Amino acid sequence: MTLIEIAQLLENSEFGTALRESQYMFPIVEGLHLLGLALSFGLIFFIDLRLLGIFLPEVPISQILQQFRACIFGGFIATFISGVLLFWAEAAKMLANSGFQIKLLLMFFALINALLFEIKCVRRGAKWLDQALEPLDIKFAACASLILWGGVTIFGRLTPYMSG
Amino acid sequence: MTTHSIANEIQDSSVSTFLRSIDHDFIVVFEVLHVLGILLLLSPLVIINLRLLGAGLTQKTVGQVFEAFLPFMLTGLIVTVFSGTSLFLTFPVMYYNNPMFLPKIGLLLVALALQLTLVFTVTGKTAPSPLFTKSAGLCSLTIWFGIGLAGRAIGFV
Fold first, then answer.
1. Contacting residues for A158 by C-beta, under 8 A, at least 6 apart
2. Interchain pair B157, A23: CB under 8 A
3. Å from B1 to nearest chain A CA?
4. What pLDDT digit, counting tens, does each position of A55-88 carry?
5. Which of A10, A19, A38, A51 lies 20 to 30 A from A137 at CA?
6. Is the minimum CB–CB distance between B48 and chain A shorter than 8 Å?
7. What is the pTM of this model?
8. What is the largest CA-CA distance in chain B?
9. What is the CA radius of gyration of chain A?
10. A86 touches chain B (CB under 8 A)
11. Cα separations in angstroms, A51 against A64, A108, B2, B115
12. How many domains does chain B have?
């Protein structure tokens, strides 16, 4: 069974069809997808600016990371679950959409970047994170995060306007 | 003159006609800007309202948090209103007839008024009551998220 066949099965399933045709559920899930983004990418944007040393430099990096961790994860869960539901309703159409394909690719790299940041930087502890001059590793991860998540958001919004 | 005929007048205006005449790709740019502006406005609001609830940037006062995020919120608001107005001007009658459009604009005005009153009340007091700040924070977050939901629904109802 090919990927596109699985996508067609999902899209044609009772749940996928009901969601796609629902007058209220589909817009609500779309709305939740956007609001989840305000918590996930929105907060990451400001944390990235802090990691670059250009915003709230007086707040230690270790503290700001810890203070918003739960919120960002909550936002991600909301964005992810609503995203999966939206995909379910239009799986085959989405898979064939070049905007969606670019978005998925950027998202993959953004997640790898976040994972590497966690392993290479956060695990080194508060003392290393809170140096007077932000280490280059941190600045690189922040730049990559801004570009990749920004791209994910832009291509996400472009998806309905890009066919094929 | 009814509001409906005003929407018709706007639709026939030169700005509106011009926006309809340009390439559709430019209109899509406004859609993207609208989302980016919303994120730039909504995320600081989440942070400020979290601070009102006693979470997040606790090493700073509500006033300091508000001040630090103000330039971002203003930029976000300007980008959102500019792109939103441009989108509205492309098809004013269609938006006016959309059941979610007027509730969204109404909520937006309420939220702006509430947020400004709230922030000035809280930052103006040296020791605002915790119950007041917390309930106000929760209330305004709910309204802002309501606007987001109503706004997104415009495209589907």
1. A99, B28, B32
2. yes
3. 33
4. 999 999 999 999 999 999 999 999 999 999 999 9
5. A38
6. no
7. 0.90
8. 56
9. 18
10. no
11. 10, 21, 53, 29
12. 1
